[in-house]
Amino acid sequence: MTATRVLVLNSGSSSVKYQLLDMSDGSRLAVGLVERIGEETSRLKHSPLAAGGESRETTGPIADHDAALKAVAGELSRDGLGLDSPELAAIGHRVVHGGKLFTQPTVVDDAVLAEIERLIPVAPLHNPANLTGIRTARALRPDLPQVAVFDTAFHTTMPEAAARYAIDVETADRHRVRRYGFHGTSHAYVSRETARLLGRAPEDVNVIVLHLGNGASASAVERGRCVDTSMGLTPLEGLVMGTRSGDVDPAVIFHLSRVGGMSTDEIDTLLNTKSGLVGLCGDNDMREIRRRIDEGAEAPEGSERAQDAARAQLAFDIYIHRLRKYIGAYYAVLGRVDAVVFTAGVGENAAPVREAAIAGLESLGLAVDGGLNAVRSAEPRLISPEGARVAVAVVPTDEELEIANQTYALVRNGNTSNGYTSNGNS
Ligand code: ADP
């Protein structure tokens, strides 16, 4: 029997998201999530899609990732999809930070684990959890290839001109300070799917990808290769996000420290979790922000509701202003643009964001057709008017499918050598 199933694991600090896919047809056999690991009220939600069964939810303490993965394995077994199945070809793990070294999905061995560990100082929130997930899965199925798929890998093609900060080269290199970029799995998938939507090869098109979720990033993709992206050393740089500030003058940090008396950790928390949309208006959900704006339109001038709407409107305007700056910047980086594409929660669903981001850019060949933009659909689609010089598109992202595809492509021919050689220079 050919093993065609891939389990995709996305291990966060207190959660594990998983999907089991059958790569013979890309179908999803099961999806689920374990939340609040380490708390009394951990929750496991499992949906056996293939079995057509009802979702099952269990709550109760799940002490650690080991217990979480064993619980997931138990749920999968109940549906006849257990981790001991000979049909399971590999487990694909999302790993947030792969530094400079990991340019491709990589079969995990001890050296790879050590390298991911070495990158913890540049990804303190993510890599430890990703490592725990890999180690736990490896212990459960030591014979099975475990594949690390890195958020940074797609961006390793960025030229030095885009990847380097203009700071002292020696200091930067000593501390591995450079622009790595994130959401790479999504940018890779969406840019390729956009080429498919246009009926062209990825190598023939230049695309600006706008991944607008709770975290948000833009990328400039030239003939299938990333040449610039908006996130940097960490996911804090770039666009305005749900809770992150995106770009600020670095001197803001010195100022808050010297004049505001804030500690480095306090400023870190401020910029990563209390800024962006939530910092500007108290909401990080674009649906809520639009609702406040719409409701305010009917409110009497000066009323509390009108003021509330004004705050939401300002947050929206700042979000859009930054987004438009990046569209313009990446237009110039690419020189010729074939498509601007929106993806992730906001990009796929928020028509007003797409409309405002593109408004008035006709001289760049960019326009949005109001009717097409208003259509709700889970399919990749064009929203630019017919005959437009540059396509504007909505392409739903699917990071799990991309991780599964990359994992399966690596192991399907029984090739489990990882081709990785450490040169200690990530
Ligand atoms: P994550 O970065 O957590 O993966 P997602 O890509 O799922 O995030 O995006 C989540 C965000 O998408 C929400 O915070 C919300 O702002 C936005 N969103 C989801 N659905 C809608 C919708 N129907 N309209 C507008 N915004 C939406």
Explain how this protein is built:
Residues 421-426 have low confidence and may be disordered. With 426 residues, this protein is of the alpha/beta class. It is globular and about 65 Å long. The strands form two sheets. The protein has an eight-stranded mixed beta sheet with strand order 5-4-3-2-1-6-8-7, with helices on both faces. The protein has a six-stranded mixed beta sheet with strand order 11-10-9-12-14-13, sandwiched between helices. The chain has 15 helices and 14 strands. The chain has two domains: 5-150 and 400-411, 2-Layer Sandwich (Nucleotidyltransferase, domain 5), CATH 3.30.420; 201-395, 2-Layer Sandwich (Nucleotidyltransferase, domain 5), CATH 3.30.420. The structure holds adenosine-5'-diphosphate. Adenosine-5'-diphosphate (ADP) binds at residues 213-215, 242, 284-287, 344-346, 349-350.
List the helices and strands and how they pair.
Blueprint: E1 5-11, E2 16-22, E3 27-35, E4 43-47, E5 56-59, H1 65-78, E6 88-95, E7 106-107, H2 110-118, H3 127-140, E8 146-150, H4 160-163, H5 169-174, H6 184-197, E9 206-212, E10 216-222, E11 225-229, H7 251-258, H8 264-273, H9 276-281, H10 286-296, H11 304-334, E12 339-343, H12 344-349, H13 351-358, H14 370-374, E13 381-382, E14 391-394, H15 399-411
Parallel strand pairs: 1-6, 6-8, 9-12, 12-14
Antiparallel strand pairs: 1-2, 2-3, 3-4, 4-5, 7-8, 9-10, 10-11, 13-14
Helix pairs in contact: 1-3, 10-11, 11-13
